Structure formats: structure tokens, C-alpha cells
Amino acid sequence: MIRVTIWYEYVQEAGYVTPELEAALPEEWKARMHEWLPQNSERIRRAYPNGLMESLAKYLRKNPEFTVTMTNLMMPDYGLSDELLDNTDVLIYWSHVLQTVLPDEAAYRVVKHVQAGMGFVPLHSAHQSKPFMYLLGTTGTLRWREGDFCRVWTAAPGHPITEGIPEYIELSEEEMYGEPFDIPKPDDTVFISWFSGGEVFRSGCTWTRGYGRIFYFQPGHETSPSYHNPYILRIIENGVRWAAPVRMRESFECPHIVYSPEDARRPKN
Amino acid sequence: MIRVTIWYEYVQEAGYVTPELEAALPEEWKARMHEWLPQNSERIRRAYPNGLMESLAKYLRKNPEFTVTMTNLMMPDYGLSDELLDNTDVLIYWSHVLQTVLPDEAAYRVVKHVQAGMGFVPLHSAHQSKPFMYLLGTTGTLRWREGDFCRVWTAAPGHPITEGIPEYIELSEEEMYGEPFDIPKPDDTVFISWFSGGEVFRSGCTWTRGYGRIFYFQPGHETSPSYHNPYILRIIENGVRWAAPVRMRESFECPHIVYSPEDARRPKN
Amino acid sequence: MIRVTIWYEYVQEAGYVTPELEAALPEEWKARMHEWLPQNSERIRRAYPNGLMESLAKYLRKNPEFTVTMTNLMMPDYGLSDELLDNTDVLIYWSHVLQTVLPDEAAYRVVKHVQAGMGFVPLHSAHQSKPFMYLLGTTGTLRWREGDFCRVWTAAPGHPITEGIPEYIELSEEEMYGEPFDIPKPDDTVFISWFSGGEVFRSGCTWTRGYGRIFYFQPGHETSPSYHNPYILRIIENGVRWAAPVRMRESFECPHIVYSPEDARRPKN
Amino acid sequence: MIRVTIWYEYVQEAGYVTPELEAALPEEWKARMHEWLPQNSERIRRAYPNGLMESLAKYLRKNPEFTVTMTNLMMPDYGLSDELLDNTDVLIYWSHVLQTVLPDEAAYRVVKHVQAGMGFVPLHSAHQSKPFMYLLGTTGTLRWREGDFCRVWTAAPGHPITEGIPEYIELSEEEMYGEPFDIPKPDDTVFISWFSGGEVFRSGCTWTRGYGRIFYFQPGHETSPSYHNPYILRIIENGVRWAAPVRMRESFECPHIVYSPEDARRPKN
User: Fold this and answer.
1) How far apart are CA C5 and CA B258, in angstroms?
2) Average pLDDT over residues C141-155
3) Most C CBs within 10 Å: which of D139, D176, D265, as the mutation test of the C interface?
4) What is the mean pLDDT of residues D121-131?
5) What's the CA gap between C160 and C163, in Å, rounded?
6) How many CB pairs (< 8 A) connect B and D?
7) Are C227 and C55 contacting, i.e. CB atoms less than 8 angstroms apart?
């Protein structure tokens, strides 16, 4: 049984922000937000009537191997309480417009849980979410443009995350993310994408941090229908299974070993 | 010409802390500090009469390829001003007892400069310095014990950092740091150390973050004479040369590419 | 169900070589062999009365998840027929004194099967077996000495191969293998060993070649009792499970794609 | 001073094969060869009147840092004698139609020299040359098609091989090589290419084998003018400088260390 938690902003779908979130917004956004969020809400709901992550949640719930909890930025503790994370094996994480609003202490709760063994599957624009940047130590910058055709190539066809996935997948419309992608060298470059405007992108990458495994996957712009594509869903499912922890780290101390292993081995008299 | 900046705490050598640093100390340390620092000062000065980094600075200054600036935690801006970092090609960094006292904004100045291309050579106990942890995304935890004999093995003998270094180096007394060392997979594991108490340690490791290169090197406990050892000095010199930037990153934006490369290639009419 | 094949030389245990193997020996060995093999046979049988791999086979057979086939160098096709390898998910491979006697075509049958997805678990002295060297492209050289105490440290405690394994394992007597170990950078350095004579060694390493995964593990000198140690057996079991193929590669051609994906996407009229 | 050797087939440019090479050809090629080579010769000479590598040689020779030797498959010892390789710091290697004709012993001379420290820069179709496959342990397979537009993206802009290279380079016509590219995980993925037919490719990759460094670079189909492009020339120049050896390995033995480092350290009486 893998306990999956899906976290996302939900702010755009909701069409409003809580007072707590609003207070944390940069001044210049506050005015735009009230106008802009309802518009975006409509655009997202056209592709995902019940919210961006509903389709993925439904897909994963069909599999008795998973229990799925949904949570979001608008909930208490920003939807990322220690209690919830303590009961999460793999955290799927989608964020975009309010990435900087998440307080550092919430971001570090995610970081700490990954270092302790929790799997982490940041999606799409989470390439500049705080947990992603804090775990990788890079800026996550890239080129971008809305509205390209995208072809996702399987670059590591023996990798568990590619199980059941063909040589390539075509997405009729996705947001272009292009190289250079400012990330540490991935452990595995599982997918590389081709965009019709002329760019390429390492769109499926893995890393390890502490006991935890990370799988970043690029598709999933909020107004593109990618999370209805069965291959995209399968890749995320594979990623969740791959990122599930082997064991959890319990202490984060640097143990002071006064009595050394060689002391212990020496004959006592 | 490589502009090298050597940054260290200098607090132990000085035997006191500035009021600014003192204010930032955890309560339980404040009392101990006044008693403990003068004692430590004496111990360090026994091995390094002019401060821990003096020997290294002197060694590097002999080489006309380098210009060397020394700075420390007790200086304005914690010795890590943007102006200084802007004029640094490679930052050698030693910290220990006051790692947590360095404010996040100073640590992030280092992080940003590394991401932009500045080389970074954290030494010994800097494995839990803020810049090291923030760049790597891991805790840097390890086992430790003072007073072991240490043998540093060259594990990657073709690597530039090993130039002029024999198969192994012996240090009659070093602080033991032992595995598991909580770091991301190194790009290169250049050295692995053997300790007389029974532990092993990846004591020379490299990573890349953004345009910047990082070389961590373990020897250098403040009361051990390692920075007088000519091989240790040579390794750090090699590391500095290896970490010197190729070019600097200028913008940290995610460029919005409305007019795509393929748009540009299409014949205009 | 994972189909495990355990291949080893068995020549030392048998105390003789087949005429076919003898013909392939270097001249200077032929005389020594008849004297030396019976002596070695006795030494191995003291530690492993039924042959070096019997204890491991027995251990794996207890697990209904595995079917285990044993084969060796003295069998037809050197115990490495295409038919057998076609029916193998993971090949455990131990070789030593007759490594060079295995013909290239047999070694390349192993290489091809690994590239197609078969897991490969070379043990101990297989660091200079032909399949190991041909898959990695390096010489596998190292320092060696018989009869050290050995402490195997878990360097990657979140890795699946470390499941159930403590911080370190002690082996009262093992052959020392020491750095520099001439291997490509491992995907994961899972274990690092400490030897009483003063050396260190990356004793558990993984790589990927094509669709296949490789786990090298150092303990297992033929006269040391390491394959009776429950932790060593568990590590090999974990390695087998980790190396089991996700899917198999079927063609090794470079496909000539005359009709491109973009041709296929263009509207036909 | 870096001693660069440029090795290529030259067979297509010459328009004929030596009797020695002809004898080694597969039967079905022999007939085609006499018809096909003169045709190809004409096509190559249209792009490169003095042979495919003449333009690169001329470019490198302008730099007093390099001495350049040209050699090819049609010369004695297949242009790859031990004497020549002993005097080579970096070997640039282009091969295509006669890759399988090179005998294993010549290929292994290259392999051994790389393992000893010689830099190796295989170009384009050398992805299935024997030295490339033997050093990497993979098949080098990929998708291919002649005649695409190609855009080479700089994926690792801080890497020394990218010095002086812009964000991307456009090649009006190159042979398409597409993923999945069957290679071990590169140490660095320096360039990723976009092809107009819809494919992507890791077109600039590095690895280390023994003391030697390898840089594979994809552009350079024999009828495309890529080796006249100043950026392509600069990348190869950068690759040569990056791959130049730090020091050479002298022995390939596994030293038997009877008297251990700890024996040496113990007080004698």
C-alpha cells in the first residue's frame, strides 16, 4: 500500500485567495489577482471541470495499491502539515502562480520529509517551487512559451518509470519549457521533449536526496489537457511507485562516536 | 589570474565574538562561549599561530596565478558582501562552531554567486555550513570523533584535482568523519579516507550547481596540523584551479520566448 | 517470479579442469594447475563443503519469489548458452582463476543479454571477468591482499539494496580489494569497505547498460566464509530484486526513419 | 602543447579501398563498394574538397597550442599504431561505413590508450565505432534519417566545452540522430539537439574511462557542411582542450600488497 498525497494550489480553480494568502502576495499582484483569478478559473475548468488534479486522483484511486489524499494551498498549514506528511509515502506536487507565497517553514517541512525518505513528484511549473529549488540547490530556470505541440521521447527505455510507455507520446498542446534547464545533473534523464517552436527539454528527471527519491515530470500546464492523457497518467503512476520509500530516516543528528568500531573489536581484558 | 577569497570564522582564533554575533547565538551557548573560546584559541594557535587559514593563504600567494583575499565572519556583512563575492572567482570556505549564526541572506549571497559561476571549496566542518547545505539540498550529516589517524586514498587518479598527489596521504591526526555522509551523489568521488577507528569517508567530492563548481575536501580540523601538509595544500590549490569559472551567468530570469526559433527560421513575406 | 541463474567457475571445487578448458590455459599454468587445483579444492571445501555458491543458492531457494538455476564453467557452452540466458532474469556471476579462459563469444552472450535487460550481479573477483570489463569499458584493476578484517559500510542507506542491512557489517576475514578501483563512475555507491591493513574500497556499486542493471559486490573470496553471513546473503538477494528487468529490448538495430514523426503529423490532402 | 591526432576513414573521399580492407569486407558489400565509393567520393568532395577532416585540421593548426597529425584507415596499422597513439594526447575519431572492418586489436589499442589517459573525441557516426562501443559497453544504437534541419542547444552552459558557444547553433542540414541513444549515463550532457522531423538527441556527451576523458559530438555527416561552421569547430577545439590528459597511467596490473600500509605504519623493534 502506497500512501499518495496530491498537493496543488487550487487557487486558480477556486477563483479567489484566502485572506491569509492575500496578505502574503506582493503588492502589485493584489489588484490583478481579483480580476485575473476568475478568468483563469474558467480556463482551467474548461480542461478540468473538477480541478486540475481531479483526473489524476481518479486514475490513481482505481489502483488498490494506492490510497490517495488530496490537499491544497488554501487549507490550514497550507495543506502541508507535519501530520499529513508523516502519513505520506509519495507527495505529488503542482504549483505555479503562488509559489513564492508558500512560507519557508512549510517548504522545509516538505524538504525534511523528502530527506527522511518520502517520495516527491513535482509536476510542471513546480520547477520553481520552493521545495524543488531547496532540494536541488539550483534555480530551475528555463525558457517558456504557451501553446506548442509537444513530443515526449523515452530516453531511458529500461527505466521502471517508462513501463508501458511507447517510444514517444504526442501532446497536441503544452506549455513549452526549453533548455538550458538549471538543474543538477539528473540521476536519470528518463524523458526528453521536442517542442514545435524549436526547443528541447529534459522533461523527466530523477534525483536522490537523503533517503528520498524525486521524479520531476514536465507536462501539465493548467489549461492543457495533459492529465487526461492515459500515458501521462501512467508515467506519474510509475513515478509514484518508483519514488515510494524503502525505509525512513529517523535521526538527523551527526552521531558522536566516542567508542569506535575498532575499540569494540579489540579484545577486552 | 584567479581571484581567490578565503573565508573562515576566525572566532576561535580571536577568542571572542563581536556583539552582533553574540546576539545571534543560542542562549545556552552564550555563557559557555566566553569560557570556551579563549581555551580553543590557545589550542588552534598551537597548530596555527597566525590563524587556521594563514598557512593556506601563504601557500597560494606564492603562486602568481592567484590573488588571495582573506575575510572572516567577524567582518562587516559577515565577510561575505556582494561586492567581495562579485570579485571572487573561487571561494574557499571554512566554518564550524558558528555555522548557524550566519544569517540566511548572507548564505544565499554565496549560493547565488556559485549558481552564477563562482567556484566553491568548502573545507572540513563546512559540510554543515548553510551555503553547503543550501547548494546540495541535503543535511551533510556524518559520524564523527576527534583524534584518529587518517589515510586519504586517491580514488580518481586521472582527475585534475589529483595532479601531483600520490596513491595515498597519511595524516597523523585528524577528526574522523564517517559514512553515511548525507550528500547527493557526487559528480566525482576524488578521495576516500580510511580512519584508524574503523570508518571510511568520501573525503573529496565534486558537484556542479548552475554555472558553478564545488569541491568539498574533508581534512582540516582546527587543532590538527593538516593545513601544513604540502599534499593537502596542493589538493586545495588543484581544487581552486579546477573550480575557477569558465563564464558567469548574468540573468536568473526564465525568458518568455514569444517569438520562437522556428518562427525566426520561417521565410517572411 | 524472478528467474535467477548462478554461474561460477566450480573448477577449484572440482579440483580438475575439463580437457576443453585445459587446452585454453596459458602454458605456464598447465603444469601448476594439476598440483594447485586439488589443494585449492580442499581449502574451498573447508569453507563451502558443497561448492562456493551452494549456500547462496540454498538461501535464495527458500524464497518462493525466485527460481534458481546453477551452472558453471565446466558445463557445455561454458554454462552460458543463449538458451539459458534467454530464460534468466538475473545472472549472479562469480569467477576468478580462469577468467581469461572464457572465450569472447561466451562473454559477449552475457554482455548482449545485459544490454537487452538481464540483471547482472558480478561478485568479488569477477571485477576482472570479461563480461564485467566489456560492459564497463574499464580494466577493473585494484590493490589486493588476502586475509584482512573487513568492515562494509552502508554509504547509501535509502537505496533498495540496503533494505534490512545495518550501518555496517563485519567480516572477520576477507580478501582486501583496495582503491583506486578502475571503474566508471557508479550510478550508486551503495557500500564502501574498510580493511584492517589500511585500504578502502567501493565494495557495492551499480551501473546501467542498455536496459540492464548491474550490481557489483565485493565480498566472497573463495576461502572466506562470507557467503554464510546472513547480511551478505540478504544484500545479494536485494541486488537480485533490484536488478530484475522491467522490460526486455527486442531489436538492436538503428532504425532508419524515412517517414518522420512530423511527416506523420502533417495533414494529408 | 596538446598533441592532437585526427583519425578518419578517408575511404569515401579516396573512392576506393586498399586490398587489405577489401578482404575484410562482408561479401555483399564488395560488389556495391566499387560502384558506391566513387559516387560518395564526389558527394563528400562537394562539401569538403580536401577530405572531411581537412577543415577541422586547418582550424586547429592555427592554434599554436596544438600540434595536429592526420591519419586514416587506409594507412599501415589502420592508421592507429601504438607508436602514433603513444604520441597522442587527444584522438579525434570519425568513422562510418567501414567501422566493422577495423580489427579488434586496432580498436583495443585505442581503448587501452584512453584507459591510460589519452583524450578521445569520437564524432558523428563513430557512435558505433568499435572503440566507442568497447569503451562504453553499450550498443550506441539510435534512430537516423538524412537531411533534417538541426538546432543544437547548449544544455550545460557552465561547462568548459561550451566556452564561446551561444544558446543554440543552427545547422541547415544534418543527419538526424534520435533518442533513445543507447549509451551509459553521461557524466555531462553538454548539448541536446532538435531535429525538424520531430526527434531529439543528446548530441554532446562526456564520460571518463580510467584516466581518459571522452567527448562525443554528433554533428558531422560527411555530406553536410557542419565542419565549416565556426561554432562546430570551436566546440571540437574546446572538447580537445577539455579531454587533454592530466597524467598518464603507467601500469595496468593489480598490485599485490603483501606488506600493508598499516604494517608500514606500525613501530618496528
Assistant:
1) 56
2) 98
3) D139
4) 98
5) 6
6) 49
7) yes
Q: CB–CB of C220/C123 below 8 Å?
A: yes
Examine residue A262 and state whether it is found in any structural domain, yes or no: no
Q: Is the CB of residue A175 less than 8 Å away from at least one CB of chain B?
A: no
Question: Measuring CA to CA, how many Å separate B246 from each of B243, C103, D65, D120?
Answer: 9, 47, 18, 21
The answer to whether B153 contacts C192, with C-beta atoms less than 8 Å apart, is: no
Residues of C in contact with A162 (CB under 8 A): 246
Neighbours of chain A (3+ CB pairs under 8 A): B, C, D
CB of A252 within 8 Å of a chain B CB? The answer is yes
Question: Is residue C167 in some structural domain?
Answer: no
Domain total in chain D = 1
Q: Which pairs with CB-CB distance under 8 Å and at least 24 residues apart come from B182-186? A: B182/A115, B182/A210, B182/B138, B182/B139, B182/B140, B182/B141, B182/B142, B183/B136, B183/B138, B183/B140, B183/B216, B184/A184, B184/A207, B184/A208, B184/A209, B184/B136, B184/B137, B184/B138, B185/A187, B185/A208, B185/C187, B185/C188, B185/C189
CA distance D15 to D12: 5
pLDDT of residue C71: 98
C-alpha cell at B1: 589570474
Cα(C84)–Cα(C7) distance, rounded to whole angstroms? Answer: 11
ipTM: 0.96
Domain of A41 in residue numbering reads as 2-136+204-249
Structural domain contains residue A166:
no
Q: Are C158 and A210 inside 8 Å of each other by CB?
A: yes
B157 in any annotated domain: no
Q: Which residues of C touch A149 (CB under 8 A)?
A: 265
- Name which of A151, A157, A185 is nearest D188 (Cβ-Cβ): A185
The CA distance from C76 to the nearest CA of chain A, in Å, is 31
CATH of the domain at A43: 3.40.50.880
CA distance A200 to D178: 12
Put the strands of the sheet holding B168-178 in their side by side order: B66-72, B2-8, B90-94, B119-123, B212-217, B200-209, B188-195, B143-154, B168-178
CB atoms within 10 A of CB B80: 26
Maximum average pLDDT range among A8-12, C8-12, C198-202, D98-102 = C198-202
Q: CA of C261: which chain A residue's CA is closest?
A: A151
pTM, entire model: 0.97
